[in-house]
Specification:
The structure is a single chain. The protein is an all-alpha fold and 307 residues long. It has one domain: Na+/H+ antiporter like fold, CATH 1.20.1530. It contains 15 helices and no strands. Helices cover 80% and strands 0% of the residues.
Length: 307
């Protein structure tokens, strides 16, 4: 394949897959401040209402072979623990504070698997890929929530606080009824199904709007060593670690491709939501989200082209 054809195909992937998602963020970035939209209000609504509704809606109706699902979840848990260890190690080597260490870990483990991930995979690989992508979304969301809330608890005062914080997280609380309906096969009450469905459908566009608003409030982007290191862990180490480990779990086809892609997303805006709730360097994480999102446009274009 000649070089010009590769360039054209990369351009097509960017225009058809990456650009539509980026445009929504750009619209919020440009229009949000003019409308005086408050990102904190939307963030809290997402954290306490939309994310748990989406999580319940997906888990309660998930259908997949148990063996495959277990291996996919195991892959996500192992890779994200590796991301957490890497982020923690880098921050401690740089002699950063507990709060900054927590921020490094959050940036390393929580990729934008909902906003960017589901939309990009749908556009690139089609509807069939949404089944494994959704399983990964749920696994990443739960695993990352536990790690992020736990590290915030550690930074605030020790493991006991971390454990309590984990069980107070809305996305974790809804797992109990969601798994109950998924395992038993009992029909979800219509009112519950419709309420969580409507709220869950609002999560991705709302989170994209929040991302744009957060980026607009980031102010002048100072790209210092911490920003580069935190973004680099997510964008560079993410796919490398995923590719290095996924073979151990016997995953292939769409399960393999979507798994690697979901581990390659930029830092999620939800890290700034969690950081704001716990007071863990939200301004720094907003800059990391901004920088990693911009940097991911070319990196994701290449990965989606290779997918």
């Amino acid at each position: 394949m000649d070089r010009s054809r590769v360039v054209l195909q990369l351009l097509q992937v960017f225009l058809d897959v990456v650009l539509p998602v980026a445009c929504i963020v750009a619209i919020s970035f440009a229009v949000g401040p003019r409308l005086s939209l408050d990102p904190k209000t939307l963030s809290r609504a997402a954290y306490f209402i939309l994310v748990p509704a989406f999580t319940f809606n997906i888990i309660s109706r998930a259908e997949m072979a148990l063996d495959t699902a277990v291996r996919m979840v195991a892959f996500i848990v192992v890779t994200h623990l590796a991301f957490a260890v890497l982020g923690f190690a880098v921050a401690r080597l740089l002699k950063r504070s507990r709060e900054m260490t927590a921020a490094y870990v959050m940036a390393a483990v929580f990729g934008n698997i909902g906003n960017f991930g589901l939309a990009l995979i749908d556009f690139r690989l089609g509807a069939d890929a949404l089944v494994p992508a959704t399983v990964y979304f749920v696994a990443v969301t739960v695993t990352s929530f536990i790690i992020c809330v736990g590290i915030c608890g550690w930074a605030r005062g020790g493991s006991a606080v971390a454990v309590l914080s984990i069980f107070k997280s809305p996305a974790v609380i809804v797992l109990v009824p969601a798994v109950f309906f998924a395992v038993t096969g009992i029909p979800i009450p219509v009112v519950v199904d419709r309420v969580t469905g409507l709220l869950g459908n609002a999560m991705i566009p709302t989170m994209l709007l929040v991302l744009g608003l957060q980026l607009a409030r980031a102010g002048r982007l100072r790209i210092d060593r911490d920003v580069v290191m935190a973004a680099g862990i997510r964008l560079a180490a993410g796919p490398l670690v995923a590719l290095g480990l996924i073979g151990l779990f016997g995953l292939s086809g769409l399960a393999r491709t979507t798994g690697v892609l979901q581990c390659s997303m930029p830092v999620a805006v939800i890290t700034t939501i969690i950081a704001t709730e716990f007071g863990m360097a939200p301004a720094f994480l907003t800059k990391v989200v901004f920088f990693s999102t911009l940097l991911s446009l070319p990196t994701l274009t290449v990965l989606l082209y290779l997918a």
